[in-house]
Amino acid sequence: MTRARHHRNHKHNKRNSNRQEASKRMQSHYIWFVAAFLLIGAELLAGTFYLLVVGLGLVAGGVAAFAGAPFGPQIGAAALVAVIGIVVLRKTRAGKMLSAGKPEISLDVGQSVQVIEQRPDGSLRVNYRGTQWDAELESPLPEGLAGVGLAGAGSGTMYIRALRGTKLIVAAHPA
Predict the structure, then answer these.
(1) Do 126 and 47 fall within a single domain?
(2) Is the pTM of this model over 0.70?
(3) Which residues span the domain enclosing 51?
(4) Can you give the pLDDT at residue 69?
(5) Where does residue 2 rank: exposed (0-12), middle (13-18), buried (19+ CB within 10 A)?
(6) Are residues 96 and 141 in the same domain?
(7) Distance CA 46, CA 137 (A)
(8) Are residues 164 and 142 in the same domain?
(9) Distance separating alpha carbons of residues 127 and 70, to the nearest angstrom
């Protein structure tokens, strides 16, 4: 093989090697970003901020991968951003409410509902935001009104105190 041909083949092989390495780097950042997208999407369904913060950590790992960092620093960037984000979240009011399990973070709390029906088991059917919902009283009606029902209590308007799954927890007075 001539020296010129050998030099050309060496350059060609080096170029292919660089492309393959760049392709691997590109693929790894795609994995980070897809994982972040999925986690942030799950956050929209879950309603906590923790998945969002961890998702932002995954974005940081993706940025590190895109910049060409080896896998160790990618993991480090993701972990660092996630841990810092969780610490900051726990110090905020929303984070304290989430960790205490308080339902007041819902935007529905405090809104009024119209009672449509009171069932024999004490559960309610209410109208809220243009549709019917199952509800239950936060505390039972006083003894004198329990047999009479809510219509006898003088008002079909109740106020949302909390949410338990898809069931509204209501009371006669706003929180």
Answers:
(1) no
(2) no
(3) 3-100
(4) 92
(5) exposed
(6) no
(7) 25
(8) yes
(9) 56
